[in-house]
Write a structure and sequence with these properties.
Elements (H helix, E strand, L loop, with lengths): L2 H7 L10 H4 L8 H10 L1 E5 L4 E4 L7 E6 L2 E6 L5 E7 L4 E2 L15 E4 L3 E6 L1 H10 L1 H27 L2 H16 L3 E2 L3 H8 L3 H13 L3 E4 L2 E4 L2 H8 L2
Antiparallel strand pairs: 1-8, 2-7, 3-6, 3-8, 4-5, 4-7, 9-11, 10-11
Helix pairs in contact: 1-6, 4-5, 6-9, 7-8
């Protein structure tokens, strides 16, 4: 999702939900029988930062509903380069981790925890039956798929049509919004993986930003000095 949209909506500032019922948006539209069935099949998990939760279309993990934490969905090229498709935060539902339910998905997506994360797993077969039985669940699923498609199309627009300096400015501002700080503990390699480019390209661009007074670089840390200038560059 574009950084400006996320910041404006306050998405990164959401409070984690206390239980599955309050986190699953269409819970009240399920019948009591469906609700009991979901709760009986539901699994709750906690993972550490760096854990891979889903790896490719052959891995049908189930649908992940995040209670608290942060996940990253990305693609990996044959050459080993990564690019982030989107991130998932509190209350987000990860559909692509149940690719066996989402027919027609023809690409492999990896889902990894960017922070320690607590979430529920809805088994794929349970969710498939819910979509068949409940128009509310089917519509909810379609809305999420549309939102994810929009995020991926936005990403394609950035890669194809926007210069690297504008993309870098957008990434730094988005990261600052996610972490609620202008002092980012992030490596050049990590940024390269998010943006689908080489570490050397990131390093050159950040040094240019530093020369322009927009950031200050130190080992493993990027400090945003002039967010107004970064915003102006992003919005060109």
């Amino acid at each position: 999702m574009p950084a400006a949209t996320c910041i404006a909506s306050g998405r990164y500032e959401q409070m984690p939900c206390m239980d599955f019922q309050s986190c699953f948006s269409v819970w009240n539209k399920l019948t009591p029988r469906q609700q009991n069935w979901v709760l009986e099949q539901l699994q709750k998990r906690q993972v550490k930062k760096g854990t891979v939760l889903h790896n490719g279309s052959e891995d049908c993990t189930g649908l992940l509903l995040i209670k608290s934490g942060q996940l990253r969905a990305y693609m990996l090229s044959k050459e080993g380069r990564e690019i982030t498709l989107y991130r998932l935060f509190d209350r987000d539902l990860c559909l692509l981790s149940a690719s066996c339910v989402m027919k027609g998905i023809q690409f492999d997506v990896t889902v990894k925890a960017e922070k320690d994360t607590e979430f529920w797993v809805i088994p794929a077969e349970v969710y498939r039956q819910l979509m068949e039985q409940s128009a509310a669940v089917a519509n909810y699923t379609n809305e999420i798929m549309s939102a994810r498609f929009s995020e991926v199309m936005w990403l394609m627009e950035q890669v194809l049509w926007r210069s690297m300096d504008r993309r870098m400015a957008a990434f730094l501002l988005e990261e600052a919004a996610i972490e609620s700080t202008g002092r980012l503990n992030i490596t050049h390699e990590t940024i390269a993986n998010h943006m689908g480019t080489h570490r050397e390209v990131v390093t050159r661009m950040l040094r240019y930003f530093q020369g322009e007074g927009m950031v200050k670089l130190s080992r493993g840390v990027i400090e945003l000095l002039d967010e107004q200038k970064l915003t102006a560059l992003r919005d060109l």
